[in-house]
Amino acid sequence: MYNLEPTKAFKKSLKKLSGNEQRTVAGKLKILAKDPFHPSLRTKKVQSLKDVFECSVNMDIRILWKHEGNRLILLIDIGHHDIL
């Protein structure tokens, strides 16, 4: 199990999402904490950013994150795919 640590940017972007989207995000974060490479997250490495990964909340919303040590995931940002 990983600990998730959101950045200020992540928290700010999360607040911009609708209530329904935020509830969906909460469910995906539980999966991310258990297994960052779970198939439902469709996790992949971001080519232009060193050590940063992207996972899907749904077909439109993405979370950017990276490992910080063995058991910590830093949640960098979240938003609609076309924005990120």
- Mind telling me which CATH architecture this is? 2-Layer Sandwich
According to CATH, what is the topology?
YaeB-like fold
Strand tally:
5
Topology as a string of helices (H) and strands (E): EHHEEEE
Global mean pLDDT:
93
Strand content: 25-35%
- Report the principal-axis shape: globular
Q: State the low-pLDDT regions, or none.
A: none
Instruction: Kindly name the structural category.
Output: alpha+beta
Q: Considering the protein shown, what is the CATH homologous superfamily?
A: RelE-like
* Radius of gyration (Å): 12 Å
CATH class: Alpha Beta
Distance between termini? 27 Å
How many domains is the backbone divided into? 1
What share of the residues lie within helices?
25-40%
Secondary structure tally, helices: 2
Major beta sheet, strand line-up = 1-5-4-3-2
Largest sheet: 5 strands, mixed
